Amino acid sequence: MVIKSLKLKNYRNYDFLDLNFDTKTNILYGDNAQGKTNVLEALYLSGTTKSHRGTKDKDLIQFEHEESHIETAIEKRGIEYQIDIHLKKNSPKGIAVNKIPIRKAGELFGIIHFVFFSPEDLNIIKEGPAGRRKFIDLELSQLDKVYLSNLSNYNRIINQRNSLLKEIVFHENLLETLDIWDMQLVEYGTKIIESRKKFVSQINQIISEIHLKLTGGKEKIQISYETVTGDLSLAHALKKYRDRDLKLKSTSVGPHRDDLEFKTGNLDIRRFGSQGQQRTAALSLKLSEIELVRKIIGDTPVLLLDDVLSELDKNRQNYLLDSIHDIQTIITCTGLDEFINHRFSINKVFYVKNGSVRKRN
Known about the structure:
The protein has helices spanning 36-48, 129-143, 145-168, 178-214, 234-240, 242-248, 269-272, 275-297, 314-323, 337-340; strands at 2-11, 14-20, 25-29, 67-76, 79-88, 94-97, 100-101, 114-117, 222-226, 259-264, 267-268, 302-306, 329-333, 348-353, 356-360. By secondary structure, it is of the alpha/beta class.
């Protein structure tokens, strides 16, 4: 699976861009705030319909324009795909695959698989559970369309249940309708929890060896899925905490509150690990993500590395570079110093300055 080319029109700081990528390693370098990350963002959006930065569609379009266009050419198992995305300021985005419009954004998931790695991901262990839930949801949504559907339905129901909890204060007769939403919440929430637990089990089969090598054989790591309901089923927890939910006017239990636990021995790395331990665990997690995608889809994902090398010490840099020699990688960085002392094959280099990209030898 490889990205062959990317074309942008009126996207971020690019009036027009036409890039052809090598099937192996591609480096985009230049000063900060020149547009390097915008290229990775557009690629990621072409596979997931969303910016990795959570930016709204209208804010991706150049200020003086009403629309923006992203065209991405992909080759997967000998089959070529063209993904076109039209971003519009005042209406929903339009998406087409091989010139055929698709009705639901979810239909795009699974055509191309990205693993995105940014400096913010190095903080996934030490920061709050929302980032860890986002990690697992984004990956599972790319791998499993059923999960994406369940998650979409669950989020819709959570929003409606929370709205109902606020309305019950003023209309007590609505209380009897809460059971209907709870039934649906349990149906989709239980499926989400089961999928996440399976995902964690699969990651654990991979991450242990990677983490052991990264720590020089000193540490073993174990990931666990933490449900906010504890030993209770989701159905029982919703009943137990209904009064609390009514008081808070919000749903306090369910997979939207769950978390991932990272331990080495008895040490909870999230709370008590050093910064080095937390960063090593994050790197192990991202490298495991690559291997898991490869195992599940029987193909390599495309790796997008956004200025991560500058955040890693030399040992972790070397391990990361040694791990990605057989996967198409698009790397952004401010300079090429990280690669000078490493026997790392660089196939294409682009210099990025003020929304202009030039190929360098």
